[in-house]
Each structure stands twice: as structure tokens, then as C-alpha cells.
């Protein structure tokens, strides 16, 4: 049976109580480069987002889940976006909010749980992730989780330092039955 619970963490839907966490994370300029954010979000806008977070993935084409630790604290977010049921694919992204919580297996466990979910429940054929070329930790994480590098988008993301390349990774559902 599928579970969104792992050894260290579990994934859950967004709740109204997540407003402050979402506000802090979405307004953290250190991650704007990877999230595509270009302006701050108000609590009012985020509250409206939370009020609509219950909508079906087939309707809104995205799903955002909280990554929670055993103490029930939200430590990050994992997203499914560009959900395309016709072609059986979607993009995914992940962020662990506190840099001190990174490189401790939380991201790997969250990606594993999400992959199990999208491949078994949503019956997707593939997932992809776009990662900036200088984000070595994320590149290593996704490769460790079985994602393959399939291309480079040259000078794709504009930053304060200039344009950066973005690498596209893909994981195709394993259909081999043992």
C-alpha cells in the first residue's frame, strides 16, 4: 500500500496553519533564482492560494505538498507542476527551507515518496526537473534518485550575475516487473 510517510519525513497537503511558513519561504530572496519569483508575496495572496490548494490536480495542473519531520514541523515543500495527463508527465521541484536541514536525506526521501505517488497513483510515465547548472547539490540529489540528464537550456535563467544554464533531468517510470 502506498504511503506518503518515510523514515524521517512525511508529505501532506497544505493547511491554513502553513501560511507563515509559506510566507517566509516564498519571500526568501535566496531561492527566488530557482523558483522564478520576481516580487514578494503578501500574506493575503498566499492566504487565497491556501484557500484554493484543495483543488484537484487534474483541474489546476499542479500539486504542492509540505515536507514534515517527525515533530510535525514543515521543513520544506515539494511540487508537481505542468501536470500533463494526456502525455503522462509532469515537472517536479523541491526546496528544504533551512540550509542546516539539507544534505541529511530529507530531500531524497521526499523525492522517493513523491515518485512512488505520481507513478502509482497518478500513473504518470515520467517526471522531469529543471536545475541550475551551478546547483551541484540538487544535481547530485536528482542523479542519486535515478533522474538522468537529458539536456541543457543555454543561458536560460537571468540572474543578477547574468544568464545561467539550466539542466533538464528526467525519470521514466520503471515498468519492469520482477
Automatic annotation (TrEMBL):
It holds the Pfam family Acetyltransf_3. Residues 9-173 form the N-acetyltransferase domain. PROSITE patterns: GNAT (PS51186). SUPFAM superfamilies: Acyl-CoA N-acyltransferases (Nat). One of its GO terms (molecular function) is acyltransferase activity, transferring groups other than amino-acyl groups. InterPro entries: Acyl_CoA_acyltransferase, GNAT_dom. Keywords: Transferase. PANTHER family: GNAT-FAMILY ACETYLTRANSFERASE, SPERMIDINE N(1)-ACETYLTRANSFERASE. This is N-acetyltransferase.
